[in-house]
């Protein structure tokens, strides 16, 4: 008689007592499918240990669907390339894996792709550019009022 009966899945019950949503808790559970070397990178990211390799949750979640043998090839490639996969790259790896086409060479090729946030950018203020372009200078003829034809009225 002293037993309490809980209704619902355990992650839903846990979510009701947590700041995390049911979906977020489901993601955390899915991460347990990662090999320790990759899981440590996610933990380090959460702990903000910037001196260690870090991986965001969403790419790690995609990688958790790879078989252990394919995951085992990742740490070496990540170290040699000095980067972790983006979410898009992790999705690509998962897709190749599901097609039976993921191997260390494919992983390396994907990891060597340039990520949008790693593209070198050059910024310059528009007013500095305008000094050197006709767009920023008024043409002498633009100081004159437009010519009106004889039949136009205001």
From TrEMBL:
Species this protein is from: Pusillibacter faecalis
The protein, known as: Uncharacterized protein
Start and end residues of each stretch annotated as Disordered: 76-96, 130-154
SUPFAM superfamilies xref list: KorB DNA-binding domain-like
Gene3D superfamilies recorded: 1.10.10.2830
């Amino acid at each position: 008689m002293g037993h309490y009966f809980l209704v619902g899945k355990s992650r839903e019950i846990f979510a009701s007592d947590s700041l995390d949503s049911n979906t977020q808790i489901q993601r955390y559970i899915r991460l347990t499918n990662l090999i320790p070397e990759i899981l440590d990178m996610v933990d380090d990211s959460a702990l903000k240990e910037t001196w260690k390799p870090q991986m965001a949750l969403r790419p790690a979640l995609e990688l958790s669907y790879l078989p252990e043998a394919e995951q085992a090839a990742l740490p070496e490639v990540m170290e040699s390339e000095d980067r972790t996969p983006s979410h898009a790259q992790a999705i690509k790896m998962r897709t190749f894996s599901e097609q039976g086409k993921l191997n260390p060479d494919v992983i390396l090729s994907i990891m060597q792709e340039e990520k949008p946030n790693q593209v070198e950018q050059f910024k310059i203020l528009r007013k500095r550019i305008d000094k050197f372009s006709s767009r920023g200078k008024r043409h002498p003829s633009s100081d004159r009022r437009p010519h009106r034809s004889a039949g136009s009225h205001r």
